[in-house]
Amino acid sequence: MHTSLLVSNRGARVMIDCGLDWLGKLKRIDPSAIVLTHAHPDHAWGLKRGAPCPVYAPEKTWQELRHYPIKERRLIKERTPTKICGITFEAFSVEHSILSPAVGYRVSAGRARIFYAPDLIFIHERGAALQGVQIYVGDGATVTRSFIRKRGRALIGHSPVRTQLTWCEKGGVPRAIITHCGSEMVTGDERKISEKLRAIGAERGVDVRIAYDGMKVTKTARTE
Ligand SMILES: [Zn+2]
Ligand SMILES: [Zn+2]
Questions:
Q1: Burial of 178 (0-12, 13-18, 19+ CB in 10 A)
Q2: Is residue 223 part of a domain?
Q3: How far does the centroid of ligand 1 lie from the alpha carbon of residue 123, in Å?
Q4: For residue range 64-112, what is the model confidence (pLDDT) as tens digits?
């Protein structure tokens, strides 16, 4: 299945991204809302036939999805915290694609804070994005190889996990979960790759896990 993250808080279930694999399967998940990072097929095309709930996305993503029969369209502005079903989402622009500009989300509920960016080369305003974040959920396209291409003056592609773990170290983020894994991780020896990742993480003081389908991570959100 295409990578997606379900954030739940007090009965609300917000789904981040909805790739083509999810087409026709949304009723079963029954999300309260859907939030999109960008309009690539593996992140948004599951909404081709509409959505059973409000959908939140940045302006540029909406432009690409303008023909989709989505009724409840909501705009997310970058760097503007937006409350969705009691969970706060703040979009940060990330470098990834020229045609489908992407964002990552800083998600907070109570004291729990995560940052989610399934596709990226780097985060603009990374310091603010990772401030106080307990779990970084990042791009697993590649472990150490570079998937970055130049298109004129812009860059497109993905940064290796190693680079992302260095950001975590610099930003004081103690845990990372790697998702949206590329062929290097999917077809490789799982144990070896997991060991390699842990070693890269350990050097940087970051506890790293590879995400799997149905993975659940609980962050207790204390409310004051
Ligand atoms: Zn993408
Ligand atoms: Zn993707």
A1: buried
A2: no
A3: 14
A4: 999 999 999 999 999 999 999 999 999 999 999 999 999 999 999 988 9
Q: What is the CATH number of the domain that holds 155?
A: 3.60.15.10
Residue type, 58: P
6 CA → ligand 1 middle, Å: 18
100 inside domain: yes
| DSSP type of residue 221 | -
Question: What residues make up the domain containing 169?
Answer: 5-210
Question: Which ligand approaches the C-alpha of residue 17 most closely?
Answer: 2
Cα separation of 174 and 115, whole Å?
12
**Is the full-model pTM beyond 0.90?**
yes
* Stretch 164-192: mean pLDDT: 93
Cα 34 to ligand 1 centre (Å): 17
Determine the distance separating the centroid of ligand 2 and the alpha carbon of 43, expressed in angstroms.
6
Residue 200 forms part of a structural domain: yes
Q: How far is the CA of 224 from the centre of ligand 2 (A)?
A: 36
pLDDT tens digit sequence for 2-19: 899 999 988 899 999 999
